[in-house]
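Example record

The entry below shows one chain as it appears in the dataset: sequence first, then structure tokens.
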Amino acid sequence: MHGEISLLRDGAILFGSGLAFVLIFRRLGLGATLGYLVAGAVVGPHVLGLVGDAESKLGIAEIGITLLLFIVGLELNPARLWRMKHEIFGLGLLQVAICGLAITGIVILAHFSPEAALALGLPLALSSTAQVLPMLQSSGRMRTPFGERAFSILLFQDLSIVPLITIVAAMSRNPADHTGPPGWILALETIGAVIGLILAGRFLLRPLFRLIGNMGEREMFVFAGLFTVVASAAVMELLGLSTALGAFIAGVMLADSPYRHELEADVEPFRSILLGLFFLAVGMMLDLPAIAERPAFVAIMAMALIATKTLVITLIGLAFKMRWRSALALGLLMSQGGEFGFVLFAQAQQGYLIAPEAASLFGAIITLSMATTPFLMGATRRIREEPVITRVGQREGPMTDGANALIVGYGRFGQTVAQMLIASDVPVTLIDRDIEMIDIAASFGAKVYYGDGTRLDLLRQAGAAEAELILFCLDEDQITLELLESVHAAFPDASIFVRAYDRRAVLRLKGGPASYVVREVLESAVKMARLALGSLKIDHAEIDRVETMYRARDKERLAAQAAAGDLRAASDRIITQNERNG
């Protein structure tokens, strides 16, 4: 019982302190990551001593890194990975290799052995995926050439975790680390595990999610999503490989499936919580007394890290024919250390390559460099050249993932709307929760994502923050005024269009934030009436007059009903047989 109380107490303190510091740091424009790190340091053993056992909490929280890589994988279908191969394996490889070796040279100058310097320098070449990606997304630059290059570097850094861990393990001075298989066996196991995950994603996971989608149980989707991440990570851990790589491969295998956005929306809250807990645990593990003994060393090394990475990445960007302003902006954005550095430092410490004091010192260097990122991000906004705001026909970034329109509901109504928009070269994202409809659409070449499009979190994952149009084309009468107000508040730049089931729905939604509310059968009924009159040989001018009169009287009646709040208002405007006979 005491253990349960202690766990609850530690949880309350950690989450409470994290909440407080993140709110403060967000207000100061310094970002959530730094808030978590400082919160962990304050409540940890070296300041207030309110919470202990950081190592066990870090072990749990590392699932947050795994979830992050799963979500990154969901953003990258194999086709997009192939299209970005030159940036990923060219720009990314050069950045990690050259930055790692340059920083290793600087660490050697600080009187570390070559092995220790390499174990410290290579991790410092990595940037913070958890910090840079949200900043790119919130600033609207994820879909620009600038954002795509930054993302390519981050992706290669994430992929490089496995070889970096292998390099650190190979240099280990701990005899226990050399009892495992030789490197070529490890490489074969990695390839076999990746192939196994690809096959599992194709032949096991997709049928599983299709079954759950037919059941319509959202809770089962959450469980299945977490199972996918944990199981893929566990397989890799069993083989002594990177758990993050396993989760990433699982994400890539599901990236082009109809369930991508639903999975993102369901897994994202767990990713955010556990990643926050990861940074809290890292903050607790910082040896503040050791840092306090050498503050000048930490500050100078942090500045050297930022300057070296900025210079190297800028030069690499120029070699890849980026304009100098864009190359410099990319260098500043990627100049900080990253969260995987803490993981690799722990690996180096276990291998007796570095002392615990050195791990704390260089952890503080990463932390300090991360604190500069929000300010450097502001500098990149002023010096970069690519336009951020993208409109139809002016899109500068990749077209494959972005969409100007989100269409919720791909039934008989949504299909017509979608085809007309696509015919005008407007990129669309289609969402429906009818598995049978999704399968039928796929047989005709249409890509429809599974999910409940009335959920704000799913709309956000589907790209609503960047869309110019959100169109609700649902068959059922399920759109409420409260929903539209929530959507408008969350995505104020998007125009909202709604298919209304009937006249009552139009009245209920009147005065809301929707740009247009369209009665689903009005135009088709008018069209049938025109055709029927034409078949009676009635003159076209007379048909036009009748349609104009009907539309005017219907509009007057609708306005009166809305004003009175009574469906029977202005009933005299209804055209009846008695009226015509009179």
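Notes for this example: The chain has a mean pLDDT of 78. Strands lie at 405-408, 428-432, 448-450, 469-472, 495-500, 516-519.
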